[in-house]
């Protein structure tokens, strides 16, 4: 089960990973073709602005943060639906 805030962070961390892959100082020894692939993917990857807009308009899919109580209820609801399946 992935919650909206976990999904948001995963996209953000993936973007950071690709930037790190492009930087030989941060990731020495990475082949040139991998650096080029990371650059190519980042060309169309959602920016911070895009992710913030998604979080504002689709908070059931992406959420920058979730209140602890909201998170608790989401986990509970998900666990109930998993038991029925």
- The helix fraction, in percent, is 55-70%
Topology, number of strands: 0
Element-level helix/strand string: HHHH
Low-confidence stretches: none
* Binned strand content: under 5%
Overall tally of domains: 1
Computed over alpha carbons, the radius of gyration is: 17 Å
Outline the structure in words.
It is built from four helices and no strands. It has helices at residues 4-22, 32-42, 48-57, 68-84. It has 85 residues and is mostly helical. The two termini are 14 Å apart.
Main traits of this protein?
85 residues, mainly alpha, 67% helix
Provide the fold topology.
Blueprint: H1 4-22, H2 32-42, H3 48-57, H4 68-84
Helix pairs in contact: 1-2
Tell me briefly what this model is.
The chain is mainly α and 85 residues long. The chain has helices spanning 4-22, 32-42, 48-57, 68-84.
């Amino acid at each position: 089960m992935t919650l909206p805030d976990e999904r948001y962070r995963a996209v953000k961390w993936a973007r950071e990973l690709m930037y790190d892959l492009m930087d030989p100082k941060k990731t020495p020894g990475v082949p040139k073709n991998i650096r080029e692939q990371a650059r190519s993917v980042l060309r169309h990857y959602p920016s911070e602005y895009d992710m913030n807009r998604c979080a504002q308009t689709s908070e059931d899919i992406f959420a920058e943060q979730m209140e602890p109580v909201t998170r608790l209820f989401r986990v509970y609801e998900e666990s109930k639906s998993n038991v029925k399946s």
